[in-house]
Amino acid sequence: MTFVSPINTITLDCSSNVLPNAILLADVDMNKSNELLIGTQDGELLIFKSFRNQNNVQLWRRALGLGFITTIAVGPVAVNTNEPRPIICVANAEGAIHLFLLRSAGQRSRVRSAGGTLHSGNRNDSKMQLYSSTTMSIATPNDDEQQQIPVAFSQQLICNPKILLIQEYNENEKQLIISYCDRTIRIFTSIIMEEFDGRLSGRFVLKHAFNIADQIHTISSRRLSNKDYELIVSQPCGNLLRFNPNDENSRVLATDMCDYTSSAWTEAIALDKFLEDTIYATICYDHIDIFSSSLNKIHHIPLSVKIGHLCGLRRGPITDNYNQLVTISSVDGDTFIVDRHLNVIRFRPPLSSNTGCGGTNDSIANTNFVDQIQAFTSGLFGDNNMFCFIYVLTHNDKIIIVHSLEISNSRTTNLSSALSKITLNEKLKQADITSEKLKDLLHPSSSSS
């Protein structure tokens, strides 16, 4: 039997709606712990940080006036640095890309000693549409003005981006991968340079464009080697695609996830050595499927979703016994954890006490959630590296962080599979229980009162 401990929650305020791809956990200041990044439809980038106390989560940094934010990514896009430095990349619906670079106090001191400033500026081609920002210092998280961070670089690309990825290719090349609402995936080569005074300059140059039949729900990537990667694409009609975008001779592998019958949210990720091999996990409406590296379906796991559909698929942490976890959320709040033994844990986060949906604090008893979750992610967060489930709610501008789940390493099993049939019948006979009585007890007929 697998057990889940009582759930601790933190509630944060968020003044606007958040799209599913505008929420992210990433280390943006290189302190070996993740921060929570939220991009809103009102153009705010919010960065929350958990300090020493795991329940002490504060708004740490913010940026304003970024347009209708659709997606966020964090990764090394500067090409002239010896040490990969995380850069925040924000895309809005108009197609503008904004970059932010956070530095530690020691790095800012070195910039000033070199004669530079922290002013936002760009030295780019005059044909590009640029956005500037006022200069603001970075100090304690209690000062609203000093919380704000400047845009280090901006460039106008193509409108209606949906998903943003940052990947390294061929050691020296950084790539920006953008999925668009017009059924295309475009890959841009980064020639962004970090200047001695702390500014970013350069541009993103279009390298590849792929037209995909039907809409694209999600894209993700997997490293093939130190020099290459592949893309994994999921579509609302149920298609699952994988291909190497940088290899002209690469073969596109495709399969069907749900018999072309569902128009619900689909999502796919790659998991290395999840079942002693690389596999692809997908969600489609109310189930998770496991595919082999050749995209042959090897497992089908139905998940009981009472209302709505599944809406989030994330890689979870690796436990002490090297057991990789996968986390899944549904729009009504049900959350599932699947391990490499295909054990499933289901829990409902205590949203009712924070959102007013329901009259009691028993979150399991409250099942009247309809499309309550608009964005979901999970992962390690804060100075304590606590594993969290993070939900953005639709109706009251709240962010719920669920943490301190303790999951045992015990595997579930089945009594009939653990005992031989003869031994089981003997034990039942000693207890004066026949097989028929056991069946009636476990599966009562609908006609019985």
UniProtKB/TrEMBL annotation:
Q: Offer one example of a GO biological process linked to this entry.
A: regulation of TOR signaling
- Which InterPro entries does the UniProt entry name for this protein? KICSTOR_ITFG2, WD40_repeat_dom_sf
Name used for this protein in its record: Uncharacterized protein
Q: Which organism is it from?
A: Adineta steineri
The uppermost taxa in this organism's lineage are: Eukaryota, Metazoa, Spiralia, Gnathifera, Rotifera
